[in-house]
Specification:
The complex is a heterodimer of chains A (about 110) and B (about 120). Chain A has about 110 residues and is mainly beta. Chain A is built from no helices and 11 strands. In chain A, the strands form 2 sheets. In chain A, strands 2, 4, 5, 6, 9, 10 and 11 form a 7-stranded mixed beta sheet that branches. Chain A has a 4-stranded antiparallel beta sheet with strand order 1-3-8-7, with no helix packed on it. The radius of gyration of chain A is 13 Å and the shape is globular. Chain B has about 120 residues and is mainly beta. In chain B, about 5% of the residues lie in helices and about 45% in strands. In chain B, the strands form 2 sheets. Chain B has a 5-stranded mixed beta sheet. A 4-stranded antiparallel beta sheet of chain B has the order 2-7-6-5, with no helix packed on it. The longest helix of chain B is centred in the C-terminal third of the chain and has 7 residues. Chain B is globular, with a radius of gyration of 14 Å. Classes of the chains: A mainly beta (about 110), B mainly beta (about 120).
Chain lengths: ~110, ~120
């Protein structure tokens, strides 16, 4: 069984640019969540998608947006990048009704 | 969101038991207690969860106080691979039923295991 994968592994962007991060959910998982983890901190919930619709959002501005596709893969888009957006971005998938979330290894984004 | 309090760091020797405490004095009756851990350079990994009764699985045991204001994650024999940040998280019944899996992480406990 393939686990949650994310791409790219690392990314460097300039302030003001836009970025798209990708996540492939574990087979059979129809719910995907995105988290931001700053250095030395725990992950912070950004939003969750279920059946291609946003199903809950944390305290993040609208320039953080997402998509979920019919195959349950997902994208996180961040516009107008700021220096504070530098972080590890984690994707987690779960089958509906499950108590477990399965995390990918993350994408390390650096904004200069 | 209900908060949890954990020590910043703990240490253990290999093959010894480890008891990781978590305080959650404002827990509500429908909050579940979840534990995740994050190994270096990896995403978090589910460990165990419970509501009122003590729970065991292949990875660990979860001991929940009778008043539910605290819990302890027990690793019965620590290995070097158990060195990680351990997060104690409360998940409300509301979140389980609707938003499904909205996890609110604190800073966790950094566990160091010595050979």
């Amino acid at each position: 069984e393939t686990g949650v994968t994310q791409s790219p592994t690392h990314l460097i962007k300039t302030r003001g640019q836009q970025v798209t991060l990708r996540c492939s959910s574990q087979s059979g998982h129809n719910t995907v969540s995105w988290y931001q983890q700053a250095l030395g901190q725990g992950p912070q919930f950004i939003f969750q998608y279920y059946r291609e619709e946003e199903n809950g959002r944390g305290n993040f501005p609208p320039r953080f947006s997402g998509l979920q596709f019919p195959n349950y893969s997902s994208e996180l888009n961040v516009n107008a990048l700021e220096l504070d957006d530098s972080a590890l971005y984690l994707c987690a998938s779960s089958p509906r009704g499950s108590d477990e979330q399965y995390f990918g290894p993350g994408t390390r984004l650096t904004v200069t | 969101d209900a908060k949890t309090t954990q020590p910043n760091s703990m240490e253990s020797n290999e093959e010894e038991p480890v008891h990781l405490p978590c305080n959650h004095s404002t827990i509500s009756g429908t909050d579940y207690i979840h534990w995740y851990r994050q190994l270096p350079s990896q995403g978090p990994e589910y460990v165990i969860h419970g509501l009122t009764s003590n729970v065991n699985n292949r990875m660990a045991s979860l001991a929940i106080a009778e008043d539910r204001k605290s819990s302890t994650l027990i690793l019965h024999r620590a290995t070097l691979r158990d060195a990680a940040v351990y997060y104690c998280i409360l998940m409300s019944q509301r979140d389980r039923g609707s938003t499904l899996g909205r996890l609110y992480f604190g800073r966790g406990t950094q566990l160091t295991v010595w050979p």
